[in-house]
Amino acid sequence: MSEPARVVPARRRGLADEVADRVRDAIFGGAYPPGAQLREVELAAALGVSRGPVREALLKLEREGLVRSEWHRGAHVTTLSDVDVAELDSLRSALEQLAVRLVVASASDADLAAIDEVVERMERARDEHEMVRCDIDFHDAVYAASGHRRLNEAWQAIRSQVHLFLLARIGVNSEGYLANIPAEHRRLASALRARDGEKALDLFAAHRGQALDVLTGK
C-alpha cells in the first residue's frame, strides 16, 4: 500500500500580501480610480520589488473584486457595472438585516462601544476618502458585534467591493457628504444601542438606499 501524499511545504507569501495591502490602500485613497491600469512593471518599480509579488498581489485583489484582468488589457481597477451595483446592494441588504437583528438581540456593551467609537472617528474625518474608510469600519464593527462568524466572513468577502461602491458614490456627488454622514451613522448607532430593532432596520435600509440613489442618479 502506497504512502499518502505528504503536504507540500508552503511558500512565504508575506511580500505579496504587503504589496496587495499597498495597492489596495492606493486604490481606496484615490490614486488609482476605477478603470485605471495597474501595470506590473510600474508597480514593481514603485514598490521596490520584483514582478512576482506584484503578480500574486494582483491575483489576490482580483479575488476580492477590486481588480479585473483581461488578456488584451491587463489588470485594471474594477469599474462597477449596473449589475454589479444592484447585486452588491441586494446582497448587502440581506447580510445587514441579519447583522442588525443579531446586534439588537445580543451585542455586548463593549460591542456597542466599538461601534460608537467609529462614529466619533467619523466626526473627525478630514476628507471624503477618510470618511469612506470610517464608513466601512463602522460596518466592520456592526458585523463583529453580531457575534456570527460566518456572517462576518460573508461580509469580508464583499467588503472591498462595497468600498468601491462607496468611492463611486462620492465620485458621482460628494456634496454634503462630510457634513451629513457622521450624524447619519450616529442615528444608526443610537438605534442599535436602544435595542430598537424595527427602527434600526428602517434606518439601515434608508442608509443603503441613499447611497444607491446617488450612485444610480435616482
UniProtKB/TrEMBL annotation:
InterPro entries in the record: GntR_C (IPR011711), TF_FadR/GntR_C (IPR008920), Tscrpt_reg_HTH_GntR (IPR000524), WH-like_DNA-bd_sf (IPR036388), WH_DNA-bd_sf (IPR036390)
SUPFAM superfamilies in the cross-refs: GntR ligand-binding domain-like, Winged helix' DNA-binding domain
Keyword annotations: DNA-binding, Transcription, Transcription regulation
Span of domain HTH gntR-type: 13-80
PROSITE patterns: HTH_GNTR (PS50949)
Pfam families recorded: FCD, GntR
Stretches that traverse the bilayer: none
Molecular function in Gene Ontology: DNA binding; DNA-binding transcription factor activity
Annotated protein name in UniProt: GntR family transcriptional regulator
Species whose genome carries this gene: Amycolatopsis regifaucium
